[in-house]
Every structure is written in C-alpha cells, then in structure tokens.
Design a protein that fits this description.
The complex is a heterodimer of chains A (256) and B (410). Chain A has five helices and 13 strands. By secondary structure, chain A is of the alpha+beta class. Chain A has a single domain, classed as outer membrane lipoprotein receptor (LolB), chain A (Clam). A 13-stranded antiparallel β-sheet of chain A has the order 6-5-4-3-2-1-13-12-11-10-9-8-7. In chain B, helix 2 packs antiparallel against helix 14 and helix 10 runs parallel beside helix 14. In chain B, the strands form two sheets. In chain B, strands 2-3-8-5-7-6 form a six-stranded mixed β-barrel, surrounded by four helices. Chain B is α+β, with helices and mostly antiparallel strands. Chain B is built from 15 helices and twelve strands. The chains are: A alpha+beta (256), B alpha+beta (410).
Chain lengths: 256, 410
C-alpha cells in the first residue's frame, strides 16, 4: 500500500516537474517580444514618406505625410499633399501632442480629452500616434499562442493594461513574427469587444530591412471603412537631431 | 314620479345638498384649473426650451441626427427654405451648419461644436440674441467674429475682443482653420450649451469648412406648438415630392430633445398622483355626506317602506338624487373652473420672483393656463365617475333596512 502511494506521488511529482520544464521551454518572454517588435519598426531613428488613404463607403481622401521618428518617444509628421493642407504638422513628445496650422500660423497643444479623437479624420486616433509606444510600459504582456505560418513562427501576445495605466483599451492582441515584424494588432474595449484592427500587409524590403509596406487600420463594425498607410519611402538612421522634435521646429516650414 | 320625488328630496334639506354639491363643484374646479395650468405650463416650457436652440422642427440630411458627420449635408438650403416659407404654420426659419472642432485661446484648448448661424434669421427663431451678456450679438456684416457661451469663455479665459483659433476638418476632409475674434458672450442657462458651443457667421463658416453652400440643418418655429405635427407632415410630403440628392428628414422637437418629453411625462405622473389623492379626499367627503343623509333619513325610509315602497324603488330614488346632485355639482365646477381658467388664460399668471430670471433667459414672464376640451373633461369625468360610484354604496345599503328598526330609529 505504502509502496503504491510512494510510486503515485513520485509519478505525480515527475509529471509536474516535466510539465514545468516544458512550460519554461515554451514560454517566450512577452515583454521582450513586444519591445523587440517596437524597436524593429521604429529603428533608432527614421524618415518616411507615407501616403494616407482614408476610405469611407461613399468617399475617399488621400494625403501624403512626411514623418520623422527618434527613439521611442519623439515623432514629427507634416502634410505635403494635397496643397490645400500642405504644411499642417503634428509633433509628439513623450505623451504630449501639438498641432500646427500654417494658415493661422498657430501651434495648438492637444488637450487630454482630444487624444482619443481621430487624427485628420482617419481611423488612427491621436492616441494611436502619441502613445503607440507606451504599450511597452503600460501593459503586461503574455504570449498566448504560437503557430507556424509560411515556415515562420508567429506569436500571439496578449497585452493587458497595468492597473492605473492611463490607457483607453481593455486589451490588445499583437501578432508578432519571429523576425520581430508586427503583423497584426487588435484593439479591444473594456468589455473585451474588438474595436479595431491594424494589419501589416505586403512585407518587402524597405529601408534596408523587411517591413510591411501597407498598414491598414479597420474598425471592427464597419467593413467598408478603413485607413491605409502606404510607405512610399522609408529610411532608417542612426540618429536625428533632437531639436527637430520641438515646437519651434514644428512651426518652421524649412525644418529639414 | 320617482324623479320628482328625488328632486323634492334634494331641496328638502337645501343646506346639506348645497354643501355636497359645493364639495363636488370645488373638486371639479380644482381639477379643471390645475390640469389647464399644467398643460399650459408645458406649452410654455416646451416653447422656452426649444427656443434656446432646437426650434420646433428641423430638416436635416437623413442620418445626420445619429451620426454627426460633416458630409451629411442639406446641399440646397434655398430649396428647403422655399418649402419652409411656403408652409403656413411655419412662422420663421433659419439655417445652421456645424462642425466639431478644437478651439484654442492663448494657452487653453477645448473641443467644441462650432455652429455657423445667419445672425438675422437666427434672431427670429431662437432666443440666442436675447441671452448675450457681454459684448454684442453677431450682425449680418460680421465675418471672423464669434459668439461663445459664458462657461466656455470662463474655461478659455477670454472676453470680447480676444482671439480664438479654430481647428477642425472641412466637408471635403481638408483641414479647416481660422482665427475668430470674440464679439459676444451668451448665457442660455443650459450649462451644456453654454460650455460647448461657438457661434460664427454662416457665410464665414461655409468658407472655412469648405461647405460649398451646404448647411446641416434648417431650423423652423411654428406659430404655436399644436401646429407643429401638421407642419411636419406637410414639409415631409413636400420634401418627398422634390426628392433629389441626399434624402432629407424632418424632425419635431420630441425627437430633437427627447429628454424634454421625458421630463414632462415625469411631471405629469407626479401631477396625477396629486390628483388621485385629491380625488380620494373628495370621494370620502362625498361618501360621508351621503351616508349621513341616509342615517338622518332612516325614519323617513322606514315610513316609506311601511307604506309599501319596495327597496328597489327606494334605491332608485336615492340614485336619482345623488346623480342629480353630482351632475349639478360638476356642471357648476366646470363652469366656475372654465371661467377662472379663461380669465388667467387671457391675463397670464406671474410667478412671483421669477420675472427677472425669466427676462434674463429670454423666457416669457407669465405662464398662461390653457383651457382645452381635454383639461376640462378629464377632471370633471373623474369626479363624476368617483362620485357616482361612492353614492351607489349608501343607495344599496338602504335595501338592508328593516322597516320596523328604521321606524324606531331617530
């Protein structure tokens, strides 16, 4: 009897141990994965020309944006086309955002209440632009699943907001390929209902590395409404001068 | 014969009968007046509320009310204007265009609803011009001038003469930006409105937001509230006849400010609870009078029964009596109530102390009760019903009387 009991215990222990090992081998660090993905798509610094297409069922609008990024926190975009909107710019530093309009020659700092509003009428919110990198610090990341697509492993990372983190999403799901390319990002509200999805499409060599040429942001409940970001030019740099990302630079049309 | 008997019985003790009838008459009078007052004050309340901004009626692009998309426009306002102008119950109309935008003062920024208005036509439709506290109302010649609410002025820390920067998106998706000079500050008394709206001249709005002559709403007021449903039907029919371009929809104030209707329903329910209590009190006092009458007249009934009157006949006589008294009481109450109400309907009632507040917000100073078939018939009808039911009880009780006991009593 005693023997049997011992054997059972040993078996259970062995099983538990084995499964523990298996789990440890399995688990890829979610945080490291997300961090690597953000570093991958932002690089140290970048300069890009992007065509933005806002599509609605009865209407479509295109504009061209020139964008600079530095590290994780600084970005500057300004519109180069259509001519009517040329020179309108947006600056993001940390979590603050300013917008500049050449017609009235004023810089306006966006109030916190406007951060969830659409940027230039697109499906991207000011928040998407300003806080796109806060995902690393404001969320807890856990690898939920992994599968192999076209010979490459794709990890599904479940990102839940940390308590008291100043975020508007209830959950995010990131699909990251083993070479750190972000393929898909899903945004869920507090009730865990899907709100919108961003997908990376047409992965090709851009700025010296593989990069999704087209980013599509689509609202969950509106099939015919989406915004495309089409990277026409992309260059990754070692660094860019920090003075580029200041309010006075935002106001100066000859910034580069 | 029975009727005659009943009639004589009523006047055999005139004091008792007159008191009973007076109680009924008073209850009826009160109900007629209170209901007329209530309906009248609703009309005043609705008119005052819709005159701040919404108007009695609005013509908008179909779907604009649910999703305030700047592209959902009334493309040809003049055509809609011709329809509104050609619909007799409509006494005035104006056009408005709206866009959610950022408004920024020297160092503060808020999200607001920028509304383009036609200063002259607007003054005929809404009380906006009367609620300007500081500075002045917009004039037809103004371009880059703004009229903002007191709370927004406080938030932005601006006064007339200061500059505001607007930043939004135009109808074509382009960026709309302009600088406006604050010309006036208004206070409507509705916080939400005073906090979140910037008015600017419609022409300049259309230019800034690339509207290409389009507007978002044609706002109309009717001669009076009752004319609204008919005007709505007529406008709707005419719009359908014209039917080209983006479909247009007509909305009445009930759809435009659903909260107002709920407030009225709430008030009406509270009113009815009050009337119910009033009616119960009246019913008991009437029951009391009738019961007392029967106790007092026990001997009389005893004699009648002893003389061979059947209980059924006795009941019939009593029912005739009470019906006659109730009818008389109600008729007197309706008459007195109608006269009283008609007097105040002509002269209005000034709520003491409210005059100044009313004037400040462009509201009427007097409340006019409104005599209608409904306000007269509801109250009187209920009193009539309750009284008759109450009176039936003693009339039936009389059947249980034993002639001998009755004779001995009293």
């Amino acid at each position: 009897m005693m023997k049997l009991f011992k054997a059972t215990t040993a078996a259970i222990l062995a099983l538990a141990f084995a499964s523990g090992i298996a789990k440890a081998q399995d688990s890829v660090d979610g945080l490291a994965l997300v961090d690597a993905a953000v570093k991958y798509y932002r690089g140290q610094a970048s300069v890009a020309t992007v065509r933005m297409i806002v599509h609605r069922s009865d209407w479509e609008r295109e504009m061209t944006i020139k964008a600079w990024t530095l590290g994780k926190k600084y970005s500057l975009f300004y519109i180069t086309d259509p001519p009517k909107d040329e020179g309108n710019g947006t600056l993001k530093r940390e979590t603050d955002m300013w917008t500049y309009n050449p017609k009235v020659n004023r810089v306006i700092k966006l109030p916190p209440s406007m951060m969830s509003q659409a940027w230039m009428g697109s499906d991207f919110s000011n928040n998407d632009l300003a806080k796109s990198d806060s995902i690393i610090d404001d969320y807890v990341h856990e690898v939920e699943a992994e599968k192999t697509v076209d010979g490459k492993t794709v990890y599904t990372v479940l990102s839940m907001p940390k308590p008291k983190a100043p975020v508007i999403w209830g959950m995010q799901k990131l699909y990251i390929r083993e070479d750190h390319i972000l393929l898909r990002q899903e945004f869920y509200d507090e009730e865990m209902a899907l709100v919108k999805t961003m997908t990376g499409e047409q992965i090709e060599t851009l700025g010296g590395k593989l990069f999704p040429r087209i980013w599509r942001m689509q609202k969950a409940d509106a099939e015919n409404e989406y915004t495309l970001l089409d990277y026409r030019e992309l260059e990754f740099k070692e660094s860019l001068p920090e003075r580029l990302f200041t309010v006075s630079s935002l106001q100066n049309p000859k910034r580069m | 014969m029975d009727l005659k008997l009943a009639w004589r019985n009523i006047w055999r003790n005139p004091r008792r009968s007159v008191l009973t009838m007076a109680a009924i008459a008073f209850a009826t009078l009160l109900l007629v007046f209170m209901l007329s007052w209530q309906f009248g004050s609703y009309a005043t309340m609705i008119n005052a509320s819709v005159k701040i901004h919404t108007g009695h009626l609005q013509v908008q692009a179909d779907g604009y009310r649910d999703d305030r998309d700047i592209r959902k426009v009334v493309a040809d306002p003049d055509a809609v204007g011709r329809i509104l102008g050609g619909t007799p119950p409509v006494s005035a109309y104006t056009f408005r265009a709206e866009a959610f935008s950022l408004v920024s003062s020297k160092d503060r920024t808020y999200g607001v609803l920028v509304t383009g208005i036609d200063p002259e036509k607007e003054a005929a439709v809404s009380t906006l011009a009367d609620t300007v506290r500081e500075g002045e109302y917009l004039s037809a010649a103004d371009t880059d001038r703004a009229l903002i609410g007191t709370l927004l002025a406080e938030n932005l820390q601006v006064a007339p003469g200061d500059e505001l920067v607007l930043l939004g998106q135009g109808r074509d998706g382009s960026i709309a930006a302009t600088v406006l000079v604050v010309k006036g500050v208004f206070s409507s008394g509705q916080d939400e409105f005073d906090r979140s709206v910037v008015h600017m001249p419609l022409d300049f709005f259309q230019e800034t937001y690339s509207m290409r002559g389009a507007v978002h709403a044609a706002v109309a007021v009717c001669k009076d509230l009752e004319a609204m449903p008919e005007a709505k039907r007529e406008i709707s029919r005419k719009l359908a006849e014209q039917g080209r371009g983006r479909p247009l929809a007509v909305f009445g104030w009930k759809e435009l400010v659903p909260g107002l209707l709920q407030a009225i329903k709430m008030d009406l329910i509270i009113g009815f609870i009050f009337y119910l209590i009033l009616i119960v009190v009246v019913a008991f006092s009437i029951l009391n009078t009738f019961l007392m009458a029967i106790f007092e007249r026990k001997r009389e009934f005893g004699v009648m029964m002893a003389l061979g009157t059947t209980p059924a006949r006795l009941t019939r006589v009593l029912v005739y009596e009470s019906t006659a008294m109730t009818m008389l009481g109600c008729a007197a109450g309706i008459l007195a109530g109608a006269i009283l109400t008609a007097y105040f309907q002509a002269n209005g009632i000034v709520v003491p102390g409210a005059e100044e507040i009313a004037r400040e917000f462009g509201l009427p100073e007097r409340i006019y009760p409104r005599l209608s078939l409904l306000s007269v018939s509801i109250g009187a009808g209920i009193v009539l019903l309750i009284t008759l039911v109450t009176a039936a009880y003693p009339a039936l009780r009389v059947r249980r009387l034993k002639p001998l006991d009755a004779l001995r009593a009293g």
